[in-house]
Amino acid sequence: MDQLREIPTFRVRVDEVADRAGIPRQEARAIFPEDAALNESLAGFAMVQMADAMTQALIAAPGGDNRAALIGLSEAYVNWARRNRALYGAISSRLLQPSDADSIVRRYDAGFAPLVRRYLSEDKPGNTTRRAALARAALFGLTDLILERRETIWLLPHQDLDAEISATIAELVDLLLTGRPAAS
């Protein structure tokens, strides 16, 4: 975990981790034969942690309040990423893999789509729009802007960054919940 925080590409190598931990490389390779296996394991650990934070936010949202649920889900995502930059990097790098890559992170992420569609009232056949995809893309982009310290390019100037992030998320949710796009 410490090494992951220090590596800008959010990938670690089994041999380097073994050396740092003071264990023989061959023992580390018995558990993780390939660097990719170690990195996938770290990303899976990170995704479980993030999913837990998001689940807690959904539990805290008032029942039946789709707006509060979406805001809570989104704020939990962004705030977890801000507190766990290196682990989020391990997640986001998996999300950007080719679509045929088999990754626990991609499966977890895809698992949230039906939930978001339900909160967008799109859980019935024929009632689906592209709003869930827009929500996911906006949340991913907003998180990256914040983590790369580029939020001032897009967010309104505000003394309290946390308040501005919350207000931006609330406005995004409101945009997603109001009106439905014209039929395409």
From TrEMBL:
Residues 72-148 form the HTH-type transcriptional regulator MT1864/Rv1816-like C-terminal domain. InterPro entries: MT1864/Rv1816-like_C, Tet_transcr_reg_TetR-rel_C_sf. This is HTH-type transcriptional regulator MT1864/Rv1816-like C-terminal domain-containing protein. The keyword Transcription regulation applies. It comes from the Bacteria. It comes from Paracoccus solventivorans. Coiled coil: none annotated. Keywords: Transcription, Transcription regulation. The keyword Transcription regulation applies.
